[in-house]
Write a structure and sequence with these properties.
It is built from five helices and two strands. It has helices at residues 5-10, 18-28, 59-75, 85-89, 102-105, and strands at residues 35-43, 46-53. The protein has a two-stranded antiparallel ribbon with strand order 1-2. The longest helix has 17 residues, at 59-75. The protein starts with a helix and ends with a helix.
Length: 106
C-alpha cells in the first residue's frame, strides 16, 4: 500500500468526486487484479461506483438484486441521498455494510 497522501486520504471520508474515490481504491488495491470497478451513470446527478471481487459474486445476482433496483429507483425519483439509504431501501442481498470513511472500505 502506498504511503503519504494515500494514508492521509484513508483517514478522511469519501468525497463527492467518484473519480477521486475510485483512484483512492485503485491505489490502495493496486496489486489486486481481481477487483472490478463498474461505473453506472444514469444522469448527470446520479452516478455510482460498484467495486467487487471477480469470481466471488454471482454477477447475475448483482445485476438483478443491486443494479436493477438502483436503476429503477432513479426512474421513480427515489434516489437515495444519504449514506445507508441505498442499503436500507434498495439492496436486497443479505449482508451489506456501508461507510463514508475510506479506511473502513479499505
Amino acid at each position: 500500500m502506498k504511503t503519504n497522501s494515500l494514508e492521509e486520504d484513508n483517514n478522511n471520508e469519501f468525497s463527492t468526486d467518484m473519480d477521486h474515490n475510485e483512484k483512492l481504491l485503485k491505489e490502495a488495491f493496486e496489486d489486486c487484479l481481481d477487483l472490478v470497478y463498474r461505473k453506472i451513470e444514469v444522469n448527470q446527478n446520479t452516478k455510482w461506483l460498484i467495486v467487487y471481487i471477480d469470481n466471488l459474486i454471482d454477477t447475475n445476482m448483482l445485476e438483478e438484486h443491486v443494479i436493477k433496483p438502483m436503476l429503477t429507483s432513479v426512474t421513480r425519483d427515489k434516489v437515495p441521498t444519504k449514506p445507508g439509504e441505498l442499503k436500507d431501501e434498495l439492496v436486497s442481498i443479505g449482508t451489506t455494510t456501508s461507510s463514508t470513511k475510506v479506511s473502513d472500505a479499505i
